[in-house]
Amino acid sequence: MSLFKARDWWAVSIGSEEIFGHSNLCVANIDNAPSQLDKVIVGSYQGIVRIYSPQSGKAESLKAEDVFLEQQLQHPILQLEVGKFVSVSDALHLAVLHPRKLAVYSVSGSSASVEHGSQYQLKLVYEHNLQRSAYNMVVGPFGSVKGKDFLCVQSLDGTVSFFEQESFAFSRFLPNFLLPGPITYIPRTDSFVTVSSSWQVESYKYQVLAVAHDADSKEESQRVVVGKKISVDWTFNLGEPVIDVTVAPVNNASPVILILGERSVVCLKDNGTLKFMKKLEYNPCCFYPHTSMAEDTVMYLAATNTGQMMVYGGVTLKWAAKLEYAPVSIRVGQYQDLKGVITTLDADGHLTCSYLGTDPSLLVVPTPESREINYDEQDEEMKRLQQVIRESSHSADVLPKKVSEEELQIQAHVPPNLDRTSVYDYFLTTDCIQVSTEDGVKDEDPIPSITVKITLSSRSGLQNVRLLIDSPFPVTANQGTFTIPYVGDSNNPSQILVSFFMRGNSLPSKTVARATATYHLPSGPPRIAQCDIKLPLKLVCKPAGPVKNATFKLTLDTNRNCVNLNDIFPDFITSDGSGSSNAMGFQIFGGPVVTLLSSKSSQRYRLQCDVFEAMWPVMKEFLDRVVKYQLQSGAKDFQCSFSSNLPLQEYFDLIEMHLELRRHAERYKDLLDQRAKQFRAIQRRLLTRFKDKTPAPLANLDTLLDGTYRQILKLAEGVEENQAALVRCSMGLGCATHIINTLLKLQFNLTDKEMEVLEASLTPEVYCDGEQGWEETVDAAISNLLRTCLAKTAKDQTINPTAFEMPPDSSKLKKHIMQLTDRLTKGGRLFIEGQEPGQRTVKATQAVARPPSGVSRDFSTDDTRSSGNA
Amino acid sequence: MPCQARLLETMDPLFVALNLFRRRKFEECVDVCTELLQKNPYDQSAWHLKMRALTEQVYVDEVEVDEEGIAEMMMDDNVIASVSRPGTSLKTPGTGQGAPSAGVRPMSQSGRPLSGFVRPGTQSGRPGTMEQAIRTPRTAHTARPVTSASGRFVRLGTASMLSTPDGPFINLARLNFAKYAAKPNLAKALFEYIFHHENDVRNALELASLATQACQFKDWWWKVQLGKCYYRLGLYRDAEKQFKSALVQQPMVDTYLYLCKVYVRLDQPLTAVEVFQQGLEKFPGETTLQTGIARVYEAMNDMSNAVKCYKDVLKHDSTHIEALACIASHHFYTDQPEIALRYYRRLLQMGVYSAELFNNLGLCCFYAQQYDMTLQSFERALSLSDNDLITADIWYNIGQVAMGIGDTGLAQQCFRLVLSANNDHAEGYNNLGVLELRKGHVDQARAFFQAAQGLAPHMFEAHYNFGALADQVGDLQSSYNAIKKSVEAYPDHADSKDLLMQLKKHFSVL
C-alpha cells in the first residue's frame, strides 16, 4: 500500500517468452567509457545477453541507439557479474555464468561519426569449464589483492570453486550442505558469508578455505570428492529461510551484512553480531543496499511480490512507491546526468529505470453505474414505488395473490388398491431407513404400503426441479427428496413413484402427505408448487372383528336413516365375514380396535374404542364417506350432529399426560445440565492435577468422573425414551384435538370459517421440538378468543399478553377450554378481527326429539343379539 | 508452460526448482521436485525443497493466528483471580482512560469497544457459560471452533491431502523422528512442514523436543518451536518458559511476540505490555511490537494509550493500515469526524478499496457536514459490498443518516432493508422499534425491541427502550427486568438508572 508510484524514466520490454532470474541484471560502466556512466546488462535463461544505455526523455519508445548490444550465447545465463577479471588490464569485464561454464567477455565499442553508428562487440577473453552444475557466483578481491577481481562459483551440490582470473585455484566442500544459498564476500574481513539449509548465517575466512586442502594431493582440481573439514569463522542462528544476502556500505563505519529473510530483514555486523532486525508484513522478493548520507544508518530498497517498493533507513520506512511490475531484481545506477536511478527487472523481461516522485499512485476507481437523471421521470417512479410500498405495508397480512397459472403442475394419483407386495419389509431388511425395535410397528399382519404416482408437467420446460415429500409421522415415504433434471410440458410429463407405509408405532393423526416442488423460473425467481396426497385409511388400518364392549363411546346423530356400513366401507369387509351391515371393526396397525356401529331403528352411529384418541382416523374417514355417500344417493340436506356431552375429561387426561411428559423432558434437561457441569468441574480438577509438576494423588476424582459419565449416559438414554413417548403422546393429543374440534363443529354446527378459526386456535398440530410447546400456544390462542370474539363484557377485552412459558399445570388451560365450550354453547361465534361471523346453516337438529344419549339401546355388535340387548 | 519445459531441458532441474521457489511458484516447484524424487527417492535436497514449497503454500504467521476456542475459554484453568482488579484484565476491561462511553462507541459482546480493524479475536466475546456459548447464534462469519485444536486448522490438513491426490507426501507415522532430529538441515524444514502443512502439533512437538536435545539445548529456534507447540496444546506456562529461555540465548522479534501472546492468553495484559517494552528496547522502532502494545491497550479500553502507540507505529511505518484505521475510528467516536475523514481518505489514496472504507467515509462525511459526498460514498460502498453482513451495515448507516436529516420514512425503509439483508441485525431491530414507537405502534415496537434483546443481550439500548415502553404501558415487572439488564450492560447509563430508581421506589411503596 503506497501513496505514490515510482515515476518511469526509461523502460523497455525485452524478449518474448524469455525468463529472467534474480541475478540476471547488472548495472556497470561495462564499456569502460570515460563518462563513467552506467549501462544495464541483462541476460536471460534463454541465453541472450543485452546491453542498454538508458537515455532520458525517451520513456515512450526505445531508440536504436539505446541498445548497445544483443547477442545470443550458447547456454542459459545464470548470472552476470562485472569486475576486473583480466590480469593484463584494469578495465571492467563481464563474467557470465552458464550451468557448466564460466566465461569472461570484454565489451568494446568503436564510435563512428554519427550518433547511431557506434558499434559494440562482445569478445570472449577466457572461459572455464565447470565439473558441476553451477548455482551462483561471487566476485571480489579475494585474499585482499589490489586491482583484481577473482571469481568463486557455488555449485548445486555445495562445492565452491575459486578462479584466480584465468587460472583455476581450488575447490572446497562447504560443511553440512544441503541446498545452495546466497553467498557474498566481505572485503574488509576477507571472508565469505552464506546461509545454510539449517537457516544459519555462516562466515568462512578465505584463508581457511585456501589452506584446507589435503596435504597428500598436491594438485588441485575441480573433481574433489573429499575434503578436509573447514572450520567456520562465526555463525548466527537466523531461524528462517533466506532470499538474499548482501554487504551494505555504511557512511563512516565498517560495512554491514544485510540479510533478506522470507519474513524479515536482518542486519549483522561483520563479526556476526545482530545490529538490527525488522519483521516484514509482506513477502519480499528482492532488495538492494543503497549508500546513505546519514551516519550509521543502513539504507536499502526492498520490493514485494505485489509490486511495491519500500525504501528503508534502518528499521524506519522512508518511502513506499508502487512499481508497474513485481521485480525479481533491483539495482541502482547512474545514467546520463541522473544519479541513483532505480533499475528493476521482472521475470517476464520488463526492464524499467525509474525514480521516486510524488505522483500519486492513482487507483482508477470504477465509477458507479450512473444514468442520465430525468427528474420528472424519477419523481414519477418514486411516486409509483412509494405507492407500492404503502400498499404492501398496509396489507401486509393479506396473502399474496395467487398467480393465475402456475408454471409447474403437480398431480398425485393415489391408486385404489394397496401394493400387492409391501415395500415395508424390503426397507426393513435393506436398512434404507433405520427402524429401531421400539420405533417399528408391532403387528402380526404385514404392514401394507401404497405407491403413489406423482406427475409433474410444466408449460415450457423447467430444469432442476426438486421435489420434497412431506409425510406425516408415523407414515413415511421410501424417499424424501427427488431431483428431476428436466420437466417437460404436459405431453411429456415427468413421473415419479413414491411408496408410503406406516413406520412409527403411534397413532396417525393425519393421513395427508404433501408433495412440494421447488424450481426456478427461466427468468430467475424461485417458485414452489404443492400438491396434497390423500392416503387411504387402509394404509394405517386393517379390518377386524367388531368388539362389543369398549371404554369410550361417541354417538353421532344424523337426519337420515342409517346406511349399510358395508356400502360405505366396501374395502373393509373382513374375509371371515365377522362384520355385518351395522357393525364394523377397524384395527390400527399396532394399535387398538375401533368399532363402528349403526343403529337400525334411529338415525345414529356410534364409535367405540378402548383408546379415546384412536377413534379419530376412523371417525374422519366415516364422516367423509357418509357425507359423500348421502350426497350421491340424492340427500341434499344431510346433516350430522353431536348432542351428548363433550368427552372433555378424556381429553384433559391426555393434555395432562402430555404436559407431564414435557415436564419430564425439562427435568431431564436440568439434570443433564447439572451432571455436565459436574463432569466439567471434575475434568478441570483432574487437568490441574495432571499438569502439576509434583504428582498429587487423584483422590478418587477418576472414579467420580467415571460415575458422572455413566450417569450422563443413563440420563441421555432417559431423554431418548422420554422423547419417543412424547412423540407418541403428541400424536395422540393431535388425534384427540381433532375429535374435539370435529365434535364442536357438529355440536354447534360451525361454518367452515369458524372451523378454521377453531382449528387455528385449538390446533391439532402438536410439535414436540422447538422452544414453544403446545399447551402455552393453545392457551394463548384460546385466551385471545375469549377476550375478543367470545368476550362477555368490555372488561374482558383488555389484552395483557403473558410470556410463553411452560405452564406448571394444565388447570388454566382446562379452564379456558371449558370456557370456550361454554361460550360456544351460549351462542358465541368464532371470528377474527376484520371478519364477520358468517350465517350458519339451518339448525336442523333442533326439532328432532332425542332420547338421552349414553344409552346403548339400539346398538349392538351383533345383529342377532341386538333384540336381546334391547 | 512451454518455456518452462524448454528450461528444464537446458538447465539442471534442481536449479529450475530453486528458481521457481524463489519466484513463489510453489505448485510448479512441487511438480519439478516430485519428478526429481521419482528419479531418485533419496534426493534430500529435492525432498527438502518440496517440503518447504508445500509449507509455504499454507503458511500463516503463527503470531497472527489467535482463535480462542469455546472449550479453551470455558475450561480456562489459568485464571489467577476470578475477580481481577480494574485495569489488569482483558476479561473485564472496565472503564479505561480516555475511552468514549458505550453510549457513543458501540461495544462488542465482551464489553470491549469495537476495533477499527478486524483481527482474529476482535469480534468474539467471552460468553458467560458453556451453554450460552454453544447457544449463541452463529453464522458462517462469526462461527468459532469448539476448541482451537480442531475447527479451523483441520481444513489445512484436508487441503494437504487434496494437493497430493495419491496420499500424503510424508507419512508421519513411519518417520523416525530421532534420525531427522539430529540433522539440523532437514529437521527445521520438516518441523515447519509438520506444524504448518500437516498441522500435527503432537508430532511436531516430539520432533522439536528430540531436536533440542540433539543440539544440547543450544539452539534458540527449537525452543521457540517447542513454545509454539506448547501454546497450541494449551500449556501456556511451559510455552512461557521456553520463550523466555530462547530470549536469553538470542533476542528475536518473533520470540517477544510469541511470549506476549502467551501473556495475553493468560490474561496478564500488563505483563504483556512490559515484555513488549523490553522487546522495543532491544529492537527500537519495531512496528510489530508497537502494534502489539496498541492492541493490548485497545482491548483494555485504554484508548488514549492505544492511539499514542498507533501514532508511534506510524512514525516508523507511515503506510501501516491497521494503525491508520484504528486512529481514524477513535477520532470518529470522539466526535472529530473531520480528522477521521482525513485518515480514511489517506487509506483510500493508499489503495485500500473496500465497501467498509467507503461506508466509513460516508459516515464521516455526513457528520463532518460534507453532505455532497455522503450519499455517493454509500452508493460506492453498496456497489462494492459482496457480503450480506456488510450490506446490512451500510443500509443501517444510511438509515442513521436518514434519521439525522429527519426523513423517517426513508429511515424506516433503510432499516427494513437491513433486516432483509441480515435478519440477525439487532441494531436494525432496535431502531425500527424506535421508529414504530414514534408512530404509536406500541405492539410492533415491543416486538422489535424484544427481537433486538434476544439477538444482542450486550446492547443496552434495546433493554432500555423495552423497559421504558413497558413502564409506560404499566407492565412494571417486565420494565424492571429489562432495565436491570440495561444497567448490567452499561452501568453508567443515567436514564436507565433513573428509571430503575423510580421502579424500586414504586415497588417499595407497594
Automatic annotation (TrEMBL), chain A:
<dbReference type="InterPro" id="IPR055364">
    <property type="entry name" value="PTHB1_CtH_dom"/>
</dbReference>
<feature type="region of interest" description="Disordered">
    <location>
        <begin position="834"/>
        <end position="870"/>
    </location>
</feature>
<dbReference type="Pfam" id="PF14728">
    <property type="entry name" value="PTHB1_GAE"/>
</dbReference>
<dbReference type="InterPro" id="IPR028073">
    <property type="entry name" value="PHTB1_N_dom"/>
</dbReference>
<dbReference type="Pfam" id="PF23338">
    <property type="entry name" value="PTHB1_hp"/>
</dbReference>
<dbReference type="InterPro" id="IPR028074">
    <property type="entry name" value="PHTB1_GAE_dom"/>
</dbReference>
<dbReference type="GO" id="GO:0060271">
    <property type="term" value="P:cilium assembly"/>
</dbReference>
<feature type="domain" description="PTHB1 platform">
    <location>
        <begin position="536"/>
        <end position="643"/>
    </location>
</feature>
<protein>
    <submittedName>
        <fullName>Protein PTHB1</fullName>
    </submittedName>
</protein>
<feature type="domain" description="PTHB1 C-terminal helix bundle">
    <location>
        <begin position="750"/>
        <end position="824"/>
    </location>
</feature>
<dbReference type="GO" id="GO:0034464">
    <property type="term" value="C:BBSome"/>
</dbReference>
<dbReference type="GO" id="GO:0016020">
    <property type="term" value="C:membrane"/>
</dbReference>
<dbReference type="Pfam" id="PF23339">
    <property type="entry name" value="PTHB1_CtH"/>
</dbReference>
<dbReference type="InterPro" id="IPR036322">
    <property type="entry name" value="WD40_repeat_dom_sf"/>
</dbReference>
<feature type="domain" description="PTHB1 GAE">
    <location>
        <begin position="446"/>
        <end position="532"/>
    </location>
</feature>
<dbReference type="Pfam" id="PF23337">
    <property type="entry name" value="PTHB1_pf"/>
</dbReference>
<feature type="compositionally biased region" description="Basic and acidic residues">
    <location>
        <begin position="859"/>
        <end position="870"/>
    </location>
</feature>
<feature type="domain" description="PTHB1 N-terminal">
    <location>
        <begin position="1"/>
        <end position="360"/>
    </location>
</feature>
<dbReference type="Pfam" id="PF14727">
    <property type="entry name" value="PHTB1_N"/>
</dbReference>
<dbReference type="InterPro" id="IPR055362">
    <property type="entry name" value="PTHB1_pf_dom"/>
</dbReference>
<feature type="domain" description="PTHB1 hairpin">
    <location>
        <begin position="645"/>
        <end position="747"/>
    </location>
</feature>
<dbReference type="InterPro" id="IPR026511">
    <property type="entry name" value="PTHB1"/>
</dbReference>
From TrEMBL, chain B:
<dbReference type="GO" id="GO:0036064">
    <property type="term" value="C:ciliary basal body"/>
</dbReference>
<feature type="compositionally biased region" description="Polar residues">
    <location>
        <begin position="85"/>
        <end position="94"/>
    </location>
</feature>
<dbReference type="InterPro" id="IPR011990">
    <property type="entry name" value="TPR-like_helical_dom_sf"/>
</dbReference>
<keyword id="KW-0802">TPR repeat</keyword>
<dbReference type="GO" id="GO:1905515">
    <property type="term" value="P:non-motile cilium assembly"/>
</dbReference>
<feature type="repeat" description="TPR">
    <location>
        <begin position="355"/>
        <end position="388"/>
    </location>
</feature>
<dbReference type="GO" id="GO:0034464">
    <property type="term" value="C:BBSome"/>
</dbReference>
<dbReference type="GO" id="GO:0097730">
    <property type="term" value="C:non-motile cilium"/>
</dbReference>
<feature type="repeat" description="TPR">
    <location>
        <begin position="426"/>
        <end position="459"/>
    </location>
</feature>
<dbReference type="Pfam" id="PF13432">
    <property type="entry name" value="TPR_16"/>
</dbReference>
<dbReference type="Pfam" id="PF13181">
    <property type="entry name" value="TPR_8"/>
</dbReference>
<feature type="region of interest" description="Disordered">
    <location>
        <begin position="84"/>
        <end position="112"/>
    </location>
</feature>
<dbReference type="InterPro" id="IPR028796">
    <property type="entry name" value="BBS8"/>
</dbReference>
<dbReference type="InterPro" id="IPR019734">
    <property type="entry name" value="TPR_rpt"/>
</dbReference>
<protein>
    <submittedName>
        <fullName>Tetratricopeptide repeat protein 8</fullName>
    </submittedName>
</protein>
